[in-house]
Structures are given as C-alpha cells and as structure tokens.
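WARN retry 2 of 3 for item q-0093 after timeout on previous attempt; input resubmitted unchanged.
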Amino acid sequence: MNQPDTSGNCSFSDVDKLMRTLQLAVHTPTFLLGLLLNLLAIRSFSTFLKKRWPDYAATSIYMINLAVFDLLLVLSLPFKVALSQVRPPFPSLCTLVECLYFISMYGSVFTICFISLDRFLAIQYPLLVSRLRSPGKIFGICCTIWALVWAGSVPIYSFHGTVEKYTCFHNMSDGTWSAKVFFPLEVFGFLLPMGIMGFCSSRSIHILLRRRDRTQDWVQQRACIWTIAASLAVFVVSFLPVHLGFFLQFLVRNGFIVECRAKQSISLFLQLSMCFSNVNCCLDVFCYYFVIKEFRMDIMAHRPSRVQLVLQDTTISRG
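OK item q-0093 returned
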C-alpha cells in the first residue's frame, strides 16, 4: 500500500524489488503451513463441537470462525504475491483479492477481540454469562462480524480510483489516504479492539492469579492464563506494526513527511510489516493449542475413572 514508484526524484524501485523477493520467501512457507494448520484447527474444533455439544460450543464456534478468516488470508497470499508484481488482467480481480485479504485481516482482529471479551466475562461473571453464552448467540456474533467486515470493505472498491497504471496493494489513490477513510479504519479496526483486548486480558489474568491460593484447579487455570497471554501476544505482534505503518504512510501521502529517504524507509517498513503480519495465520495455532489443552484438562477433570480417561482421550486425539 505504498505510493507510486516515483515521486519526483524519489524512486521506490529498490524497495519494491527487495520486497518482491522477500514476499516470495515469507509467503510460500506461510501459505503451506497456514493451509495445513488452519484446516487441522477447523477439524479439531468441529470434533469438539460434535462430541461435546453444548459444553464447549461457544469457544469452538469462535475458534472455527477465527480459523476460517485465517484460511481466507492464506488462500489470498498466492494471488497477492502474483498480482503485486504484475498488473491484473482486469481490475475486478485486484479488487476481489484485496477484499479477501483485508476482510480476513479485520475479521481476525474482531474475532480475537470478541474471544477476549467473552473469556473475561466468563471469568468475572460466570453465573450471568452461563445464561447468555448460548451457541446460537455466539453464532449470531460471528455472523455480525462477517457483516461488519464486508460492509467495511466498501472503500476497497475505490482503492485505485482513477490511477491508470497500478498493481494490486500498490499505487493507492489519494482518496484512500484521506482522513475520513483512514481514521475510522485505524480507530475502529485496530485501536478500539486492541484497547478492549488489552483491558480484558489484563483483568482476566489478574483475576485468575488472585484465585491461585483459593482454587483446586490451578493447573487448568494456568492453562487458561497461557491461552490469554498467547492471544494477546499474537495480536500485538501481528497487527501493531502494520497499523503503525499505515499511520506513517498516511503522514507521507498527506504531505507531512516529504524527505525522500524517510518516505523510502516508511514504504519499506509498511511492506515488511504487512508481509510479516500474514504470519499471524500460523501464529494463531498457539491460541488453538492452549484452548484445546484447556478443553482436554477440563474433560479429564470430570471423568469418573482413569480407564475412561484414557479411552476417551484416545478417541478425541484420533478425531
């Protein structure tokens, strides 16, 4: 999402050449690993959904929704690599790929945010949430997330405006970087979800640590703390640099930063941050791992005998 290759005497060809090579090196393993890991995650949580309905339905629905968004991002990567190097045969193809990419990114942001909020409410108000946390309502929330990100993708259709020569994810029109487009995206697409997630995660961890000496299920609650911490770490590492890059590029495109080397550095930083933020579709596997571990620990805690524990755990592992 950088500016055209040249701006007066300021050339971005070296940056773009470097990024074409780097994108290929990063996106190839990301595509292969992301495809495998997210398909496995969908399969695992679907198994819990079928065999443990409705005990683990709410969290499983959220996790399946997150894995589907990650899978969409994975599937967009080969097209992103190809279309960022050559001009698309028809503009609608570029728009479609850009839509899939940004819908999956912000779909993941909102889903992770709601997972964090849901977990905090379940920890802080367990009796109240047990009545409100029905599978139907969670499914409705996920559908709302899909509706929001699709509605929010409308500005993508004018990303390139009247620009004649462009490649996908490059050469965005000036209107794309206007304040009325940029600030709602930055505030509602990232800052607000990050604020909610940071508050919910810190409060949840604080509550669980405070209960450490008053609970017999500390091992299970420790797994819950790891789940919360992993989700927050993945969120910050994946999305903070890219939105900082968006902000810096906004300053460039609106004339606040005019020095050539600064503009080249910002272009490189933005493309690097977008490139490595795509690894998020693989990093989410840490969240899946801790959630599945938490599920299994809870299942084992409620099993009547050691023999049944072994047999049932084997069944779940085989899917």
